[in-house]
Write a structure and sequence with these properties.
The protein is of the alpha+beta class and 461 residues long. Helix content is 36%, strand content 15%. The chain contains 13 helices and 17 strands. The chain has helices at 2-5, 14-33, 53-66, 130-138, 188-195, 209-218, 220-229, 278-281, 289-313, 337-351, 354-358, 362-379, 387-412; strands at residues 77-83, 86-93, 100-104, 108-110, 142-143, 150-155, 170-172, 200-203, 238-246, 253-254, 268-270, 323-324, 334-335, 383-384, 436-439, 444-448, 458-460. It has a five-stranded antiparallel sheet with strand order 10-5-15-16-17, covered by helices on one side. Strands 3-2-1-12 form a four-stranded antiparallel sheet. The structure holds flavin-adenine dinucleotide.
């Protein structure tokens, strides 16, 4: 716990950290009992220290099905259903057929991941901040949205952003000379600065023969694109870039008001990357086990609390008059597929450039925010012409809203803390040692969690 506190700018909470460690330990043992294929170590014991995503999801899916749950694959949720008592369901579209679906439920858990702004980073192109927008429309807050500028190193020719192995890389200019100060863990800013003017190359040349064998066995997919290109990353230089992972390897998300993962809106809970990870990571995560541990633990607690809430509704559950919480589409604002693509490009122009999102200043953030506010006014009531476009349009709305919460929070945090780096405030300011909440749709608000330091409050629209 101590090793991560400084990295996260001392915004994590040891109580939450302890709970997550304990719950993850219990869940790992539970998985073993349920048949997760953990490897056997040299002493013949089940080695319960690592999870493979696909295996984990396969087992969880089996358990969910066994419990009688119907799974709607490829069926994005577009809207929450609400009444005066809170959230009571959701509706969306089945991508394959374009049909709409509606689910009425005693409670809803948002577990839709973070937002990586369609940057094509590995595993992230389905993460467009939809859950943030759904939550905000229902009246929930977000927090830690300034911690949203994660960029991962990847080869130029691939989307694989597994960055752990770059710990053993050296970074080079095109002429083969070493870029001083460039590095994966410390020195990513040097790589970004260099990329602004010229290509950057890497080579995993700080590895031993034994490490190389181990690395291939541990992360086969890291090497796939190299093998296809006929490049040996241990002995040959290869061009690298940095792909935006936004809040996925940032820490911002839907704010939780208590340990049950409640959002403050009755009947609405959040889990995993959709929820703020500040409680265990503060303002920095990078990669690593705490993220999956958070997903596993918050999923467990949110499930437990949502079930209890649904039961507490009793027969009232069947008497609800639910309506959609989303912003209303106006037929006079019909947009074509091409216009939606233009708007996606417009959001990306604001969040991808290092000069706006990584190297932050008052001027660049405020200018970008101005453009994002006008983009929001442009997309908020837009209507799509078909089901596929409706999903894409919703993604644009969510990404635009997310970017506005990000930059409004980044403007309010006039210091450097965690992954949030302000060039105009390069130091950490002890008087800003608080979490920032944000929210709002047409008018975005930001305020410290405690509510006492009102000097940083800003309102933007
Ligand atoms: C390259 C990479 C490597 C990582 N390595 C590690 C690691 O080694 N260890 C670790 O602990 N963590 C790691 N992480 C982080 C980890 O993957 C996440 O913390 C974890 O996947 C979060 O789980 P989740 O279920 O909350 O969200 P996700 O896994 O992101 O799942 C969210 C799901 O919601 C779906 N969705 C989105 N919008 C909607 C909508 N509107 N309607 C319906 N569904 C929707 C998405 O399609 C997706 O399936 C890594 C992340 C990346 C990007």
């Amino acid at each position: 716990m101590k090793s991560r506190e400084a990295l996260g700018g001392y915004l994590a909470d040891r109580g939450w950290m302890r709970r997550v460690l304990d719950q993850t330990y219990a869940n790992m043992n539970d998985l073993a009992v349920s048949g997760y294929p953990f490897p056997i170590d040299d002493e013949g014991q089940s080695y319960r220290r690592s999870l493979q995503g696909p295996e984990y999801m396969k087992l969880m899916r089996k358990r969910v099905k066994k419990a009688g749950v119907r799974i709607l694959d490829h069926s994005p949720a577009l809207e929450l259903l609400v009444d005066a008592h809170g959230v009571g369901g959701a509706s969306g579209i089945r991508s394959a057929t374009g049909e709409t679906w509606t689910v009425k439920a005693g409670a809803v858990i948002l577990a839709s991941g973070g937002c990586a702004f369609l940057s094509k980073a590995l595993g992230c192109n389905v993460l467009t901040g939809d859950g943030y927008l759904l939550a905000a429309e229902a009246g929930a807050s977000l927090s830690g949205m300034e911690f949203s500028n994660a960029y991962a190193i990847s080869p130029v020719f691939s989307t694989v952003t597994k960055t752990a192995f770059y710990t053993w890389a050296t970074f080079y200019y095109e002429d083969g000379t070493v870029i001083e100060g460039a590095g994966s863990q410390k020195g990513r800013s040097v790589i970004a600065r260099t990329l602004q003017t010229q290509p950057v190359y890497a080579r995993l040349d700080r590895t031993t023969e034994e490490m190389r064998r181990w690395m291939r066995a541990a992360q086969p997919n890291f090497f796939l694109s190299f093998d296809r290109q006929g490049i040996d990353p241990f002995t040959q230089l290869f061009p690298v870039t940095m792909r935006l992972e936004g809040t996925v390897r940032g820490t911002g998300g839907i704010h939780l008001i208590d340990e049950s993962c409640a959002t403050g809106v009755p009947g609405l809970y959040a889990a995993g990357d959709a929820a703020t990870r500040q409680f265990i990571c503060g303002g920095f995560t990078g990669g690593g086990s705490h993220n999956a541990a958070w997903a596993m633990s918050t999923g467990y607690w949110a499930g437990e609390a949502a079930a209890a809430y649904a039961v507490s509704l009793g027969s009232r559950r069947n008497e609800r008059e639910l309506t959609g919480a989303g912003v209303e589409a106006s037929v006079s604002a019909l947009v074509s597929t091409g216009e939606i693509q233009e708007r996606i490009a417009a959001v990306k122009r604001e969040v991808e450039p290092f000069d706006i999102n990584l190297f932050r200043t008052e001027t660049t953030l405020a200018q970008s925010l101005g453009r994002l506010h006008s983009l929001w006014r442009n997309v908020r009531n837009a209507a799509a012409m078909n089901a596929a476009d409706a999903v894409k349009l919703r993604e644009v709305q969510a990404m635009t809203a997310t970017a506005r919460w990000m930059y409004s929070s980044a403007l309010a945090r006039r210091e450097t803390r965690g992954m949030h780096k302000r060039l105009d405030y390069p130091g950490t300011d002890a008087s800003q040692h608080y979490r920032l909440l944000t929210g709002g749709l047409d008018e975005v608000w930001v305020k410290p969690e405690s509510g006492v330091l009102s000097s940083v409050e800003v309102r933007q629209s």
